[in-house]
Amino acid sequence: MTTIHQAPLASLAKLVAVGMTATVLVASAAAQQAYTTRSVNLRAGPDQGYPQVAYIGPNRPVYVNGCIDDYRWCDITAGSNRGWAYSRYIEYPYQNRRVQIYGNGQTLALPIVSFILGSYWNENYRNRPFYNNQNNWDNWRPGNRPPPGYGNGYRPQPPRPPISIQPPRPPIVRPQPPKPPVYERPDPGRPQILPPRPQGSGEGLPGFVTPGPNSPAGQR
Asked: Which alpha helices (DSSP H) does 31-127 contain, by range?
């Protein structure tokens, strides 16, 4: 007959506590501390089209859980919030200085993680307003137009008014004043040439005296 000895409840509670502590330590070791270089939006996915989760100020400590394969977006934890931040605004300590993750993720040997919307949102965003809109985001991929979100998420922009094309304006024709006549002045250095007198009696011309009945013939 085999006797089974049950462990005291106090010992079981102690083992559970030790296991939970070990889990926390492993999670803390996996996350790498970094700092924000400017104000950055924490998103619900690795693209600016995903809903906003939180707003983080500049020079704030954050923990990097991993980045997607091109290291452009990283999964970070900031306080009680977890989400994705653009790596250009995150610096990571490297050789006694801070290095921008963007373009240096491979050198920093940060872990590469994948993004699965369903499991990620179930774990982190159950109490978020946009969580109930999850079906609209399942088939969405970065680079496409984001579907509408809720709360601090994406909000569709109002449609732009149509561009009105104005007809061309008619040319303005202003009447020009008449030009004054041009008079040619005689040159004082040149002699004035008068037109020749017409042949005849000379009657009607200046200086002609009509002969009277008593005037001798041929007298002018």
From this structure: 105-108, 117-124
- CB contact at 8 A, 45 and 86: no
Q: Residue 176: how many CB atoms within 10 A of its CB?
A: 6
Residue with tokens 């005296």: 209
Q: Mean of the per-residue pLDDT values for the chain?
A: 73
Sequence-ordered list of residues with C-beta below 8 angstroms from that of 35, at least 6 positions apart, any chain: 59, 60, 61, 62, 90, 91, 98
Q: Could you report the per-residue pLDDT of 9-65, keeping only the tens digit for each?
A: 344 344 333 333 333 333 333 467 999 999 999 999 999 889 999 999 999 999 999
Q: Which of 92, 95, 97, 107 is nearest to 37 (CA)?
A: 92
Q: Which helix (H) or strand (E) holds 195?
A: none
Tokens of 180: 């004054």
Q: Which residues pair with 85 in a beta bridge?
A: 74
